[in-house]
Design a protein that fits this description.
Strand content: 15-25%
Order of helices and strands: EHEHEEEHEHEHEEEEHEHHEE
Largest sheet: 5 strands, parallel
Distance between the termini: 33 Å
Radius of gyration: 20 Å
Number of domains: 2
CATH architecture of the largest domain: 3-Layer(aba) Sandwich
Helix content: 40-55%
Shape: elongated
CATH topology of the largest domain: Rossmann fold
Oligomer: single chain
CATH class of the largest domain: Alpha Beta
């Protein structure tokens, strides 16, 4: 289990982020200030850090410096300030990314996954059933030939490649597509996207072997469940 180090002084935000990250399968260790963060960094190692820029006893820039001196992990700044100076300061100090509050939960998870991919913590190329998905370049190939997907079709495919072997409910997929589109995506629309994606990546869309239906629940990437 990947361990995320969360440095955030707002208790409500910290609680909500902890629940979100735990639901995504991450372990979370929380520090509410600069001094507490420094002490925790001496005691344990983490896989990624989410650091608020504004802290009651200092700032996230100092925390980032300590992280860079002790642990080789991605750092993402959380900031309520969208001013250019703060962003540039954080990136110049070695931060991998920043995200401005308020933000959508799925956007944060996507940023975390991207940071892990860049750090080599998760594969950036997925291969299954003659399908090759390179998330670094965004190129999708079937049996060596590039195929072209719409933005939402590609996002849908990434949900499956990011959860190999797991059953993904339709509700989860709807949430993912809603975040990507920035607008409401209904159940009928999801069915259309699944159909279109299968037509592009399956050898036989009427008998799919890549995106398989788990009746009454949702879908999964491959597996032995009966498909339809």
């Amino acid at each position: 289990m990947k361990q995320i180090f969360l440095v955030e002084d707002d208790k409500a935000i910290a609680k909500n982020l902890t629940l979100l990250l735990q639901a995504e399968g991450y372990g979370v260790s929380h520090a509410s200030g600069q001094a507490e963060a420094a002490a925790m960094l001496e005691r344990a190692r983490y896989d990624l850090a989410l650091v608020d820029v504004s802290l009651p006893d200092g700032n996230g820039f100092a925390v980032c410096t300590w992280i860079r001196q002790t642990q080789n992990i991605p750092v993402i700044f959380l900031t309520a300030s969208g001013d250019e100076a703060s962003v540039v300061t954080g990136l110049n100090m070695g931060a991998d990314d920043y995200i401005t509050k308020p933000f959508r939960p799925r956007e944060l998870i996507a940023r975390i996954q991207t940071a892990f991919r860049k750090a080599g913590a998760v594969p950036s190329v997925y291969e299954f059933g003659g399908l090759c998905v390179d998330t670094g370049t965004g190129v999708v190939k079937k049996c060596g030939k590039e195929i072209f997907l719409s933005a939402l079709e590609y996002r849908l495919l990434l949900v499956f490649t990011g959860n190999p072997g797991k059953v993904i409910t339709r509700a989860h997929l709807l949430n993912e597509l809603w975040d990507a589109a920035g607008e409401y995506v209904n159940d009928n629309t999801l069915t259309v996207y699944i159909k279109r994606l299968r037509e592009k990546i399956e050898d036989d869309p009427s008998s799919p072997g890549i995106i398989r239906t788990v009746r009454g629940i949702g879908y999964r990437l491959g597996g032995n469940d009966a498909a339809k």
